[in-house]
Write a structure and sequence with these properties.
Elements (H helix, E strand, L loop, with lengths): L1 H14 L16 E2 H11 L4 H12 L11 E2 L11 H4 L16 H11 L4 H22 L12 H4 L8 H4 L14 H4 L8 H16 L4 H7 L4 E2 L1 H20 L3 H17 L4 E2 L4 E2 L2 E2 L4 E2 L5 H4 L8 H12 L29 H13 L3 H18 L4 E2 L6 E2 L5 H11 L1
Antiparallel strand pairs: 1-2, 3-6, 4-5, 6-7, 8-9
The structure holds (2R)-2-(alpha-D-glucopyranosyloxy)-3-hydroxypropanoic acid.
(2R)-2-(alpha-D-glucopyranosyloxy)-3-hydroxypropanoic acid binds next to helix 2.
Organism: Roseicitreum antarcticum
GO molecular function, one term: Glc3Man9GlcNAc2 oligosaccharide glucosidase activity
Protein name: Trehalase
């Protein structure tokens, strides 16, 4: 079975390969997405490490001069996705979106080079590029120098319609937006996707930022939505630490020191987001200064960074206590807002499972890590390479033949 799964996963990565980048799945997502690509490289490295490095290089070829790395690169025109390049209107040589996504590149590059040290020379320019992205986060998304960065659009989190955003999202208006037609609901079941009200607010934010000509140093303060997501910050911290090691091994001591300093600032600030009552971290709403009372997978994913051992042990116990057959539900089952089939409001996502399992294992929580991995492989066995899965019955949902799901399976089986 393992061999068949591996072969099927490689087939999906090849089907979705467009030469120098890979689409998440054809139809629903016909472009290059930021964190999808970096995690996809981790799957590609098992059969073609140079191609895996190309995946990350292509993404960074579209980095903005300010350091931001966009969440979508629109390499080829395709009207099957909304919002397309005309809505973003970012005026880049190759059109891109104007917001970013979880910065997994530093982590992915380190893992790739650990297994393919012969690619180290070729990867040297990426170390400076990824560091510039990390610096951009701290400069533009942490104006108060708190050590933690904010997202200014739910799409930046990669967990688009999480219950985490419900309260701060109420501050985003919906009036005055241009009429639009969604395309996602033509490819996937609308009952499993974000609502129209959420899309209206997504688009209001895009229009707000577009009016400011995508000057990224202005957008944080101009956004009514500013949320510190612990999972997002854990990814940034982990990427800073991993990239620091890569830089040090290359003799790039200054870049190594910059990344270590940013990671230390984040690690010092994270404990303020801990909730003993929920046994996990929570998001912080910068608009109110309050923690958001929403136990989602973002707060469990925080174990991806080297958090205190007692927090890691508690997160392992919290996951173990989830009353669903499959782990890890993207929102705590049985709590308000949980919906087993609706996108990031309950379903299991294998990329999140992968990072949680990695963090748990590094924290010495091997049994819990193995349980998350076993659950992930069982889902593949039962329902194939879906975009996401119902944690109760394991049904595969959203897009099919999904690239990063296949990539994660290659990692789980390695
Ligand atoms: C918006 C591509 C992306 C993932 C995100 C996931 C979904 C896009 C959408 O698909 O978001 O970026 O249109 O729904 O939420 O995590 O990167 O797979």
């Amino acid at each position: 079975m393992t061999d068949a799964q591996r072969t099927a996963a490689i087939d999906i990565l090849k089907i979705n390969d467009r030469g120098s980048y890979t689409v998440p799945t054809s139809g629903l997502y016909p472009f290059q997405w930021n964190w999808d690509s970096c995690l996809t490289a981790l799957g590609q490295r098992h059969f073609d490490a140079p191609r895996a490095l190309t995946e990350i290089e292509t993404l960074f070829a579209h980095q903005w001069p300010c350091g931001m790395v966009p969440h979508i690169v629109f390499h080829q025109l395709d009207d099957g996705y909304f919002p397309g390049p005309d809505v973003w209107d970012c005026r880049r040589p190759v059109p891109t979106s104007g917001i970013t996504q979880p910065p997994v590149a530093g982590f992915a590059l380190r893992r790739l080079l650990d297994g393919a040290p012969d690619l180290r020379d070729r990867a040297r320019p990426l170390v400076a590029q990824i560091t510039a992205w990390h610096r951009w986060f701290h400069a533009t998304r942490d104006p108060g120098d708190t050590g933690l960065v904010a997202i200014i659009h739910p799409w930046e989190s990669g967990r688009d319609n999480s219950v985490d955003w419900d309260i701060p999202f109420q501050r985003v208006p919906t009036d005055g937006i241009a009429p639009y037609t969604r395309r996602d609901t033509q490819h996937a079941n609308p009952a499993h996707r974000p609502t129209k009200d959420q899309y209206d607010r997504y688009i209001w934010l895009v229009e707000r930022f577009r009016k400011l000509n995508w000057q990224t140093d202005l957008l944080h303060d101009a956004s009514p939505f500013q949320v510190v997501d612990p999972g997002f910050n854990a990814i940034l911290i982990r990427s800073c630490l991993d990239l620091a090691d890569v830089a040090a091994a290359m003799g790039e001591d200054d870049l190594a020191a910059q990344n270590r300093t940013m990671a230390e600032a984040g690690l010092a600030a994270l404990p303020a987001l801990w909730s003993e009552a929920h046994g996990q971290y929570l998001c912080l709403d910068r608009g109110t200064g309050q923690l958001i009372d929403s136990p989602s997978s973002g707060g469990l994913l925080t174990v991806f960074a080297p958090i205190p051992a007692d927090h890691a042990a508690t997160i392992a116990a919290t996951i173990d206590a989830q009353p669903t057959r499959y782990r890890v539900a993207s929102h705590a089952p049985g709590t308000p807002g949980f919906d087993a089939k609706r996108y990031w409001r309950g379903p299991v996502w294998l990329v999140v499972n992968y990072m949680i399992a990695d963090g748990l294992a590094r924290a010495g929580q091997k049994e819990a890590a193995d349980q998350v991995t076993a659950s992930s492989l069982e889902l593949i066995h039962q329902s194939g390479f879906a975009e996401y899965y119902d944690p109760l019955d394991g049904e595969g949902l959203g897009g099919g033949q999904f690239t990063w799901t296949a990539a994660m399976v290659l990692e789980f089986l390695a």
